[in-house]
Amino acid sequence: MLSYRHGFHAGNFADVFKHVILTRLVQSQLGKDKPFFYLDTHAGAGAYDLTSVMAKKNREFNGGISRLWERPDVPGGVQDYLDAVRAVNATADLQAYPGSPLIVRHFLRPADRMVLCELHSKDFEYLQEEFARDRQVTVQMIDGYHGLKGFLPPPQKRGLVLIDPAFELKDERARLLEAFSAAHKRWSSGIYAIWYPIQDRQTVDWFHRQLIRTGFRNMLGAELRIFDEDVPLRMNGTGMVIVNPPWQLEQQLEVIGPWLWQVLSPQGRGGFRLNWLVPE
Ligand SMILES: C[S@@+](CC[C@H](N)C(=O)[O-])C[C@H]1O[C@@H](n2cnc3c(N)ncnc32)[C@H](O)[C@@H]1O
Predict the structure, then answer these.
(1) Phi and psi at residue 133, to the nearest 5°
(2) In 3D, which of 74, 120, 99, 96 has the Cα closest to residue 256?
């Protein structure tokens, strides 16, 4: 039984970090005319109403997207992400937030395709409704890890996969590692973006070690922490491992990362870190 609902967290600092990187990855696919494929293994509801009871419960978006919304100094590498957020807001007021499916959809060209997996029945229903008449998008109520098996390698032969679980199950990391490892063996040239929360360093270090033990090369790690890692049960930060990162992503994140940290860290705690788990 799944209890996690992304609606409580939509637009928080971790979403901003994840979606800015996701936007850079999608942009990297647009340089060539050839169509690309996008797989979202844990898609969520697609879009979120920030005026809803759910979003207003903890107002997590106040520590995330709200902090960027009216900044006059947004770097180029963040601007197109903000354009995707503005596309779901009819007015200048921030009232809605797009999840990963709508952010990627914003940039798709007519020949590009995407597949979305979501297991929560209510969020699946929203997702299905959102893309009901969209022939470029396939929505499936299946386990995202099975989706990795079923949809990879894609016919387009190029593209990216976002693996973004809720981490509510104890064995989530182990399941993720197994499924990712099998997927990479079948499609080694795809870009994989693996998201994780940072609560304590020990768990993150273990996760990184397991990724390194797969023996795959070319894994770049990016982390944004907004608190010190002194409260193990709180989300102190967020990270993304990008496997087969596109050309120049590292250089782009060197500019974007410190800017995001400065905007999103309330008391200047934590920090931004970029490091190669395994080089090319
Ligand atoms: C962190 S949220 C996804 C957020 C979304 N990717 C975004 O960035 O907007 C994780 C989602 O995964 C769903 N979920 C949990 N386990 C799943 C599984 N095994 N397969 C597919 N979806 C799953 C949850 O219901 C939840 O909606």
Answers:
(1) -105, 20
(2) 74
CATH class of the structural domain 6-278: alpha beta
Report pLDDT for 266.
Answer: 77
CA distance linking residue 61 with residue 84, whole number of Å: 16
pTM higher than the cut 0.85: yes
**87 pLDDT more than 90:** yes
Q: Strand, coil or helix: what is 85?
A: helix
Pocket, ligand 1, Cβ cutoff 6 A: 2, 4, 6, 18, 40, 42-44, 99-100, 117-120, 123, 143-145, 164-166
Q: What is the pLDDT of residues 112-151, one digit of tens each?
A: 999 999 999 999 999 999 999 999 999 999 999 999 999 9
Structure tokens at 173: 């990391």
Catalytic residue list contains 15: no
Residues 6 or more apart whose Cβ sits within 8 Å of residue 187: 152, 153, 154
Name the token pair of 20.
């800015």
CA atoms within 13 A on the CB side of 227: 17
Q: Which pLDDT does position 79 carry in this prediction? A: 97
Which listed residue (73, 164, 171, 228) is catalytic?
164
